[in-house]
C-alpha cells in the first residue's frame, strides 16, 4: 500500500493479493498506531450496482402503480364527466335523466341535481300539457259561449226592433178600433131592429178579433200591462176544460193532471188562459187525425242560468206542460218556433204570433219555457210561472156591484190627442149620463184645471206627443190630489207605465160597459 501522508483519509490501493481495494485509515495520537480498513473494490462496486438496481426496480414499480392509479382515476373521472354530459344532453332535449352514482362526491352531487331538474321538468311539462288540453277545451267552450251570446244578442235586438214596430202599430190600431167599437156600442143601443143589430154584432165580432190580434202583438212586444196576482193554476185549468173541448173539436181528448193541492203562481189569469189555449191549438194542429192532448201541472226549481233566451232564470216555478203525440219538430223548425210571424201553416191558417205571444207573456211574468220534441215523437212545451209565496196566495175580495146609474151628472175632463177617439169616448161618456169636456193635450188639460171649477174625474190618454199622459197625470195629482184620474191607452208600456203611473189604467179598445165599470169604481173609491 502506498505511504499514507495524512492522519486520516480514504485511498484506493492494492491489497497483499494485488486486488484493488478501497481503504479508510486513521492515525491514533495516543498509541501511535494507524488503523486501516480495506474493502476490495469489487465488493464496493457490486453493492452499489445492486442497490441501484433495487432502487430502480422499486422506482419503476412505484411509477407503474402510480400510472395505473392515474389511469384508473382518469377513466373514472372521464366516465363521470361523460355520464354528466349525457344527462345534461338528455335534460336539454327534454328526456328523462336517470340517477348516476360515480363514487365522486362532486359529480354525484351534480348528477343528483340534474336528475332532480329532470323530474321537475317532466312534472311541469305534464302540467303544461294538461293546461294546454284544458285551455283548448276552455277556448272551445268560450268560443261556443261567445257564439251563443252573439246569437242571443242578435235575437234580442231583432225582437226589440220588431217589438217597437208592433207596439207602435198596435197603439195606432187600437185607436182605430176604439173609434169603431165605441160607435158600434152607441149604434147598437139605438137600433130597434134585430135584423140590423146582427150586422152590428158581426162588426163588433170583427173588431174584437182585431183587438185580440193587437193583444198578441203587445204580448209579443211585452208591452201590455199584466194584472199579476196569486192564482191557482190547477183551478184555472179545471175551469178551462169546457173551453178546450169546444175549441179543439170532437176528434181530440184533453187529459188534465194536476196535484190535489192548489198550485199557487204569480200570473195574469186571462193571459195565462190565452197561453194554454194557444199551446193546445198548436198541439191540435200537430195531430191532423186527432188524439189525446195532455196538460199537466207540476213544480220545478231551476238552479242554473238560462241556457237559451226562452229558458227560465233560476228560481221556483209552477210548471204547466202541454204535450201531443203528433209529428214533432225538426231542429230547424225548433230553432225558429218562438220567432214572430214564423209558422209552418198556410198563410190563411195563422198569423205566426201565437207562440210569440206565449213567450212574451211568460217572460213578462218573470218565467220561461222549454220544449222537448223530435220528428215523429210528438212535442211537449213546458212553461214556467213564478211560484206565489204562501202569504200572497189569498183569494182576492169580490168587487162591489157597480151600476151605470152612479155616473149620472158626473163632469169628466177628457184628454186625448186623437180627434176620432176623443169624439167617440165623449159620446160614450154622454151616453152613460156624464158631462164630458174634451181637450187635446196634457198642457191644455192643466190650463183648463187652472181656471177653477174642477171636474169630478179626468180621463186621459197615455201616449200623447209632447207631454205624455203619465206626466200630465202626475202634475195634476201633485196640484189637485183629490181629483181622480183614469189613464187610457192602446200602447201598454208594461214596466215603464207602471213606473210612471200607479193609478188605474184602462186599455183600448174598451166597451161602454168597461168604461162605466172603471169610472164608477174610481169615483166610489174616492167617495
Descriptive overview:
- The chain is an alpha/beta fold.
- Among the domains are: 8-81, no CATH class; 228-386, 2-Layer Sandwich (Heat Shock Protein 90), CATH 3.30.565; 404-526, Rossmann fold (3-Layer(aba) Sandwich).
- Helices cover 51% and strands 18% of the residues.
- It has 13 helices and 15 strands.
- The strands form four sheets. Strands 5-7-8-10-9 form a five-stranded mixed β-sheet.
- It starts with 7 loop residues before the first strand and ends with a helix.
- Residues 391-403 have low confidence and may be disordered.
CATH topology of the domain at 228-386: Heat Shock Protein 90
Going by helix content, strand content and strand pairing, the class is: alpha/beta
CATH architecture of the domain at 228-386: 2-Layer Sandwich
Instruction: Report the sheet with the most strands, covering strand number, pairing sense and barrel closure.
Output: 5 strands, mixed
Number of DSSP E strands? 15
Q: What spatial form do the alpha-carbon principal axes imply? A: rod-shaped
- Structural Rg: 56 Å
Q: Please report the number of helical segments.
A: 13
**What is the H/E string?**
EEEHHHEHHEEHEEHHEEEHEHEHEHEH
CATH superfamily of the domain at 228-386, called what?
A: Histidine kinase-like ATPase, C-terminal domain
Sheet-strand content, in percent, reads: 15-25%
| Average pLDDT metric | 78
In which range does the helix fraction lie?
A: 40-55%
The parts where pLDDT drops under 50 for at least 5 residues are 391-403
CATH top level label of the domain at 228-386: Alpha Beta
Lateral strand order in the biggest sheet: 5-7-8-10-9
Task: Report the span from N to C terminus.
Answer: 176 Å
